[in-house]
UniProtKB/TrEMBL annotation:
This is Sterol desaturase family protein. The chain crosses the membrane at residues 37-59, 71-91, 123-142. It comes from Synechocystis salina LEGE 00031. Signal peptide: none annotated. It comes from the Bacteria.
Length: 255
């Protein structure tokens, strides 16, 4: 429920920006269908399955572990915001490898950075991300999970933000405070311009910098303005149904 409320508050705030309103108004019908289906799956169906199935599954196989681990509030937050982010970095990087990119390629058909497109995916591809399994498992283990839930809520909001064009002007103090360590919309836009390149982290730039996958754009359009360049979408020869369910069609990606 908190995630849904956060989404709609952030969505309403994004509409204050003319560019976001223009992007949403010009979005093709098929893109709306892809993005809406992804939002329903990632924002409602998967959390429901986590509550009804995954946690109940843990209670069947490891009942003695439920609420068995005590961790202070700050430690929970660091676990959710930092450690899980590192796991996500490697999972996301793996999805850009030759073996798994077909599963992830639909996400890179995004042609404009608006927050609704954050969930554009083949519907079951979210199962390859660590959030689905780790978050429910860690919440199952913790005696008090409020710090961890705060961390994953922050990650969720950052995911919406970095898929939007709500960029921070480089001359603002907030940009100077965040740019050295946090993945900003400009950084994730670069990821969408180079689908096999870098900027795989969700929250922190340190993982990309540590492993040599950090992308930094020094072009005047990005450095001197609050608006970033638009992503470079992959063109797929796939029907809407194939993009949603089965992206393995032969010759699915155009050259």
């Amino acid at each position: 429920m908190a995630s849904l409320i956060s989404f709609w508050l952030f969505f309403a705030f994004s509409l204050l920006q003319p560019q976001q309103r223009q992007f949403l108004a010009s979005k093709p019908r098929q893109d709306w269908l892809l993005d809406s289906a992804g939002l329903i799956v990632q924002g409602a169906i998967i959390p429901l399955l986590q509550l009804l199935l995954v946690i109940n599954f843990y209670s069947l196989i490891i009942p003695q572990w439920q609420h068995s681990f005590n961790l202070f509030f700050g430690g929970q937050f660091l676990l959710g915001f930092v450690a899980i982010d590192y796991v996500y970095y490697w999972a996301h990087r793996a999805l850009h490898g030759k073996l798994l990119f077909t599963i992830h390629q639909v996400h890179h058909t995004v042609s404009q950075m608006d927050m609704v497109s954050c969930a554009r995916n083949t519907l079951w591809s979210s199962l390859f991300l660590p959030y689905v399994w780790l978050n429910s498992f860690i919440i199952y283990l913790l005696q008090d999970a409020r710090g961890y839930i705060l961390a994953i809520s922050c990650t969720y909001l950052l995911d919406l933000w970095r898929h939007s064009s709500l960029n921070i002007n480089k001359d603002f103090l907030l940009h100077h405070c965040l740019n050295s360590w946090l993945i900003l919309p400009q950084d994730h836009n670069l990821h969408h311009q180079q689908a096999v390149g870098g900027n795989f982290s969700a929250n922190l730039k340190i993982w990309d910098k540590l492993h040599g996958t950090y992308l930094k754009d020094t072009s005047p359009e990005v450095v001197n303005q609050s608006n970033s360049l638009q992503p470079v979408p992959i063109k797929l020869n796939l029907t809407l149904w194939q993009q949603l369910v089965w992206p393995f069609a032969k010759n699915g990606q155009e050259s």
